[in-house]
């Protein structure tokens, strides 16, 4: 059984007609962490080993200073948003993709700029190896100030490395000019929210970007 978000995005049509489900792609969930024991996420975690011990060295990073040695999520938001991207069982749009996790927000959902910057830098070379870098960053967080360029240089480095940062527009709609940063920055792909009837969700932040681009 598929969730309505999969059908609204016609991801299931892509699976069945084009035989594309994300296989070969690697998504980094950069958020409050990930519960890697979740049944919808466990088997497509890159560090998962069905025949032995998992290897977290290149697939998990805790930037918050708590030193979690494997993917955990004391908040739930990171598990939820990554599940929407790559979860199995009809909840995610790309269940064939693998994922890695980066915890840059604490269990209350807050993060220091230094944590976030460390997490973005880790994504360039997980475990020190740029060959293991993700293709896409899944980031559902931001600052309410659309003019903020705090992470712009980090995002420019990621784009130069061929990594696409995808950011939520924010939940501060429905007025115009309520876009969050970094979703407002030219380096990102900004995503808004719709409801089950394909209408723009009332809470979803609206553009345009301060830089003159249509966002989301």
Question: Which series of helices and strands comes N to C?
Answer: HHEEHEHEHEE
Radius of gyration: 17 Å
- Helix coverage percent: 10-25%
Overall structural class, as computed from helix and strand content, comes to: alpha/beta
Rounded average pLDDT: 96
What's the tally of helices? 5
Largest sheet: 6 strands, parallel
How does the overall form come out from the CA principal axes? globular
Key phrases:
single chain, 216 residues, alpha/beta
Q: What does this protein structure show overall?
A:
The structure is a single chain. The protein is of the alpha/beta class and 216 residues long. It has helices at residues 4-8, 11-18, 77-86, 113-124, 152-160, and strands at residues 26-31, 60-62, 98-103, 136-139, 164-168, 189-191. Strands 2-3-1-4-5-6 form a 6-stranded parallel β-sheet, with helices on both faces. Helix 5 (152-160) links the parallel strand 4 and strand 5. The longest helix has 12 residues, at 113-124. The protein is globular, with a radius of gyration of 17 Å.
Short summary:
The chain is α/β, with parallel strands linked by helices. 20% of the residues lie in helices and 12% in strands.
Helices and strands, with pairings:
Elements lengths: L3 H5 L2 H8 L7 E6 L28 E3 L14 H10 L11 E6 L9 H12 L11 E4 L12 H9 L3 E5 L20 E3 L25
Parallel strand pairs: 1-3, 1-4, 2-3, 4-5, 5-6
Helix pairs in contact: 4-5
């Amino acid at each position: 059984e598929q969730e309505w978000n999969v059908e609204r995005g016609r991801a299931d049509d892509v699976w069945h007609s084009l035989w594309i489900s994300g296989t070969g792609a690697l998504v980094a969930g950069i958020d409050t962490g990930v519960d890697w024991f979740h049944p919808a996420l466990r088997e497509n975690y890159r560090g998962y080993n069905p025949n032995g011990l998992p290897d977290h060295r290149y697939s998990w990073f805790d930037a918050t200073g708590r030193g979690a040695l494997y993917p955990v999520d004391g908040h739930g938001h990171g598990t939820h948003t990554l599940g929407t991207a790559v979860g199995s069982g009809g909840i995610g749009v790309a269940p064939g993709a693998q994922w890695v996790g980066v915890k840059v927000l604490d269990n209350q959902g807050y993060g220091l700029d230094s944590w976030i910057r460390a997490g973005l830098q880790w994504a360039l070379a997980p475990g020190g190896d740029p060959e293991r870098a993700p293709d896409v960053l899944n980031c559902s967080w931001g600052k309410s100030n659309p003019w903020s360029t705090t992470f712009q240089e980090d995002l420019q480095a990621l784009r130069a490395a061929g990594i696409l940062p995808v950011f939520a527009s924010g939940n501060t709609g429905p007025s115009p000019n309520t876009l969050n940063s970094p979703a407002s920055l030219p380096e990102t792909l900004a995503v808004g929210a719709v409801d089950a009837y394909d209408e723009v969700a009332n809470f979803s932040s609206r553009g345009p970007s301060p830089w003159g681009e249509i966002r989301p």
